[in-house]
Amino acid sequence: MVTSPERGAGADFAVDDLHGAVGDPLLSAMNFLNEIAGRHPEALSLAAGTPHEGFYDVEDVHRCLRLFCDHLRTDRGFTEEQVRRTLLQYGRTKGIVHELIAAHLATDESIAVDPESIVITAGCQEALFLTLRTLRRDERDVLLAVTPAYVGATGAARLLDMAVLPVADGPRGIDLDDLTRQIREARAAGLRPRACYLVPDFANPTGIRMPVSLRGELLDLARREDILLLEDNPYSLFPLDGERLPTLKALDTHRRVVYLGSLSKTIFPGARVGYVVADQLVEESAGGGPVYLADHVARAKSMVTVNTSPIAQAVVGGRLLEYGGSLRGANERESEVYRRNLTLMLDGLARRFPPPSPVTWTTPEGGFFVVVQVPFDVTDEVLERSARDHRVLWTPLRHFYSGTEPLRRLRLSCSGLAPELIDEALDRFAAFVAACAPAGA
Amino acid sequence: MVTSPERGAGADFAVDDLHGAVGDPLLSAMNFLNEIAGRHPEALSLAAGTPHEGFYDVEDVHRCLRLFCDHLRTDRGFTEEQVRRTLLQYGRTKGIVHELIAAHLATDESIAVDPESIVITAGCQEALFLTLRTLRRDERDVLLAVTPAYVGATGAARLLDMAVLPVADGPRGIDLDDLTRQIREARAAGLRPRACYLVPDFANPTGIRMPVSLRGELLDLARREDILLLEDNPYSLFPLDGERLPTLKALDTHRRVVYLGSLSKTIFPGARVGYVVADQLVEESAGGGPVYLADHVARAKSMVTVNTSPIAQAVVGGRLLEYGGSLRGANERESEVYRRNLTLMLDGLARRFPPPSPVTWTTPEGGFFVVVQVPFDVTDEVLERSARDHRVLWTPLRHFYSGTEPLRRLRLSCSGLAPELIDEALDRFAAFVAACAPAGA
Known about the structure:
The structure is a homodimer. By secondary structure, chain A is an alpha/beta fold. Chain A contains 15 helices and 16 strands. Chain A has a seven-stranded mixed sheet, with helices on both faces. Chain A has a four-stranded antiparallel sheet with strand order 12-13-16-15. In chain A, strands 2-14 form a two-stranded parallel ribbon. Chain A has helices spanning 25-39, 58-74, 80-88, 98-109, 123-135, 151-159, 176-188, 212-225, 248-251, 293-302, 310-322, 327-330, 332-352, 380-390, 419-436, and strands at 13-14, 44-45, 118-121, 141-147, 164-168, 192-198, 228-232, 257-262, 274-277, 281-283, 291-292, 360-361, 369-378, 392-393, 395-396, 407-413. Helices cover 41% and strands 16% of the residues of chain A. Strand 1 (13-14) of chain A pairs parallel with strand 10 of chain B.
């Protein structure tokens, strides 16, 4: 009775019968990257922004679960029945580790927020998706996004039929003049720009970190122009020099910032636990309230995933407890790996492409990513060739733009490989570039 | 620095600035039910459709996790590194327990499907949400729903701006004439009815089970009228007499049924793991494919939650392995509790409201729910009074309709209480009814 989908079998639908996003080149691009990695398991990956897994252990899951249950018993006075119910039954829509997350934000980020303004989500992607869902009232509501932009942001907007207006990044991470211009032009066209999505610390894909002074100016602009800033912050714990800058949310005195929290890089991606801090106040129509924007995000969540797996939340909670609420403490070894890898990558590029060379690259102050300029169009076919002939993977920068024209840039990620493989991967990458570069370039 | 939302504080938004769904009475109703339960912890709940938790144990989580990891090592030959990566890293969008789910469907439901046509989701709610997202191309696409309908279905549609057309249930679970009429009227109005949502086995809230003959007629109708059936099946393992009927999906020879799978009632709600079987074939626009509708659902998922927590999936996988892939086997004790509770509830109602009485109720053949007709309007205020003065909770039936006019019906659930508390809860319920019923009624 099992039917396998075969070419030529009678189809039940055409793809055009379905929502446009599922056939979008943007989403197909993601699939293509996964698929090519699957077809070339022998290739070294400078593509994936996955966290270093050298220190992972399945026993961590058991230990963290036990720590969280002990915390419920000891610190919160739960009975065994309450512990059991908390982990295994339906639970609070906004989550059960909100207080531990608030403590982490205070400890590691100097962000002071009411735990009630936090919604724990099924990964940061859901935080972003729900925030956009809540903010998009109708087809006039649009998102601004510093571009090149993480495909998760533009993809979520696409799935919600929410137009995305690109904002130039410029050398410092955001071009404020372009942002102002985009906002005003959108308003003149009858649109409502609701928020600007950005990654201020070691952006994906550019690796750029916004200077502090620019953060202040951006917050002033957001207030003046009446937009929100959606601050996505997966990488700020990993500066190259150990010096961290205050997040936008830490500097946010007028509730202009919705803070999107990922724990995939700092705990485990497999927990699929993220969160959103949405402490903006919403006046209810019946004259009640105000309530937090987080409460509205939670209402949307109740119709998407009901609540985030409390088992997964307990693992994350245990991990936070293990290091006294500090993710900085929990990531000392990983930070060292990322620093070493990024240094190896930047030094390795410099050795392989000494000036003058048509190959140039960015020099990020931290994070996972380096953008490389090459003297040829970076298409999916070129990536296929790199995987097959040179056994090295990376990400075409085109995938971070809504257009489909090829660019001459690509992204390298230093996070997924063991340090001893970085040089081998770069040797392969250099061989690939040599094979593709036009003679004399 | 912590701001608490206080009445009179300057708000940043009016609720009308946000998506309409978050201010919808439907979603507020859900909040109201949770909130009233929180305010009356001493009340016995005949409201919640939560599974019986008497057999739950946190150690189950550890044991199931270990079982699944052993399965990866022993049955699938994974190295320790692969086990670790499977549980803790990013993973396959469609999930990692699809083969175990396919085996369960074959064992318990006589449903034979390709595991590749399954997407594992963050609870059944996400399965429903993603399916609707994929099917709704534009504002002309509408959902049919047998009404009264589970609020999760109408709420998900509302969040997607997808209109829901109610279909009469009638005494057998669906009125096929009304379904045909609704489809044709919708098409005449320029709309595209894509699918009909229904719970054929012990529906929520009515408890009705569709007869087998009607299931066949419904499948014929779906084929004739070219619509899909969204079959939601959380309760079919719990018939009163032990006799089970074939699901629509088991009878589906023409890929007309998208099957929505919940494990919240049969494993743990806290895992938040559900799934969708979508084996319909989709022709890709570039002439590729066909691929499964499941692949398109997965693309949507990649922009909502990326993938379902593999830790949570591993717990579910371990539970399935523990009983040789059979959830029927895993739920023998629970089935016995539900049978006993439902019998106690039906017998208890009969003793307390002997005929002739203005109070009548449905007599379901299984599941969790009984609908009671009472001689007064069942408003939220009446529920408040029941909770406060009589310490018993239940659910107004109004919450299962899109309208807001009060009805004279309410839903009782037998699943959440220990058997020894059912009679006490019914005593309180009878006292509440006596206090509300008009004199002489």
